[in-house]
Amino acid sequence: MFLLRLIIPDRPGSLGVVATALGEVDADIHAIEIVEHRRENGTAVDDIVVDLPPGVLPDRLVSACNSVPDVEVIWFSRYGAGGGLHMDLEAVEQMTSAPADAIDILVEQSPAVLHADWAALLDGTGSEVKVALETSATPEFGDVASGWLPMEKATTLEAPDHKGLAESVLVAAPLESDRRVLVIGRRGGPEFLGSEVARLSYLASLAVTIRATS
């Protein structure tokens, strides 16, 4: 399974041309999500999850997309989150079914929701910042986390020159207080877009609201 992030012309038929090009290399499209509309230049950013039959090289996916005029591949990687892109609603359904665990569920589901590698809930309400909950592959934070607090709203973070974090792109959002923060990381990119920051902000607020009903 592979994830392609593309910039394509924001006009009718563009996705169909890309889908045809991918079909010509025997790619099976599992899901498509419009991540962001860029109306200032008439383009859109789309995520496409595909898989390939045995024996077909992954590079052919990139070549197929690049063969379409005005289409640019800005990210290409293996995708291990199960191949579904409509994860926001699934996360919300899980949170509403177990309100007391809403924040824990958001932490666990956020890497799949945002196509990231790891997530961690940092708690700085005490004398030092601690990791309250983390997913697999979360790196060590050392002393860098204290510099992110307090946090008033969802935002991207500049990756510090710290082992395990230096090559990551980061986004974060406060949960319950400005000293309890959900941090999400992608190794190597792509950068988190403004629309993704907004989605995280919405889901974080929703998780807090849902938990308050328990």
Automatic annotation (TrEMBL):
Q: Which domain of life is it from?
A: Bacteria
Q: Please report the stretch or stretches of sequence annotated as the ACT domain.
A: 3-76
Protein name according to UniProt: Amino acid-binding protein
| Record organism | Kribbella sindirgiensis
